[in-house]
Structure formats: structure tokens, C-alpha cells
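Go through this:
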Amino acid sequence: MKKTLGLSVILIGGLLSGGCATKKYVQQTTSPIQTKVDQVSDQSNKQGTSIEEARKDIERHETGINAAKERAMSAEKAASDAMNAAKTADSTANEAKSLANQNTQQISSIQQTLGNLDDYKMAAETVVPFGFNKDTLSPEAKQQLDQFVQEHSNSKRFFITIEGFTDKTGSSAYNDALSRRRAERVMAYMVTQHNIPVFRIQDVGLGKEKPADEGRNREARAKNRRVEIRMFTADLAGTQAANSPAAPTQATR
């Protein structure tokens, strides 16, 4: 009996001793593996953090790149607009220069045509009457202008002055406007009906200034409602005509 009990104790002790050895073996075997797993996990976490940081950096860089692209596009548009504005300004300047050259040529042509103004002498004059508060040409006034142009149509170097007047009735502002309209009517008739170049005519409205008659009666007022037309010429024939004793064509009523 004692022998059997002792054998049992030995067996149990052996098993227990063997179990402890197995557990220690397992721990020794698995410990490096766990360490390796922990290292891999830690490395994976670090790599995950690095990837996230890299992704954020990429997003920041993309945002910066997009902003730079927008600024570049805005600068390119501004440069394009500035170039177009410069082209427009250059075109406008060229047009203005061309117009100035044309005006200079026209003025030069007029000066050559007219010659020296000091050489011009009055060759003829006439006075066209107007009705009270009227700025239209009567049939008699048109006939008078026709005769004036026909008698002096041979002049080559000439210009014509047209001065409009009114009587003293009414305000100065109204009379000034009325006198201008009267002068313009005469000018328009001579240009359209007799093809006189516009640059040869100068017209002005003087209102009730320089009255032809200082009287205050009806006859004086009728004389003041008028347009005075004078022709100046540098032609020898025109100068001789101006010095001749013949009286100028006039009509007053």
C-alpha cells in the first residue's frame, strides 16, 4: 500500500513538473512572437500616422496649388484685359492722329484756296429783310439771294459773312436766338440752292445789337429785322467791283 502511494506521488510530481516545463517552453516560444507582433503593430500605427500626415500635406499642397492656379488665371486675365485696353487706346490714338492729319490737310487746303485774308476786299453786299418774329425766307428774299449769287458767281477766291439781327422788341436771349436762326436760314439756302461750300461762309447772330436805324417807330423796327450778307474776294475783278461807284444791292422794308 505504501509502495503504491509513493508511486502515485512520484507520478503526480512528474506530471506537475512536466506541466511547468511545458508552460515555460510555451512562454519562451511565444514571447518573441508577441514581441514581433507588437513591433509590427507599433510600426503599422506609426506608418498609419505618417500616411495620414502625408495625406494632409498633399491636401494642403493641392489647396495651395489651386490657389496659385486661380491667382495665375486672374493675373493672366488682367494682363489680357490690359493688352486689349492698350490695343484700343492705340487704335483710338491712331484714329485721332489720322483725323488730326485730315483736319490739318483740310485747313491747309482752305488756306491755299482762300489765300491771305489781308488780300480780301469786300466786293458786294445785300440786306435781306424778315417779318416780325419770323425766321423764314420770303419768296422776295429768295429771289434777292438768287440775284446776289448770280451776279458774283465768277469769283474764285471768296468768302461770305452772314450777320443776323432783330429789332429791340423782346428779351436779349430771345432776340439772340432769333437772329441766329435768321442767319442760318440764309446760309442753308445759299449752300443748298447755289452749292456754295460751307467753309466759305461764316454766320453769326447779333440780336438787337448794331441797329440799322435807331428810331423807335415801325419803319425803324422793320429795317432792324434783317440779315446782312457780304462777299469778300481776293480776285482782281472783285476788288475793282468793290471800288466801283455802284451801290450794293439792298432791300429794306
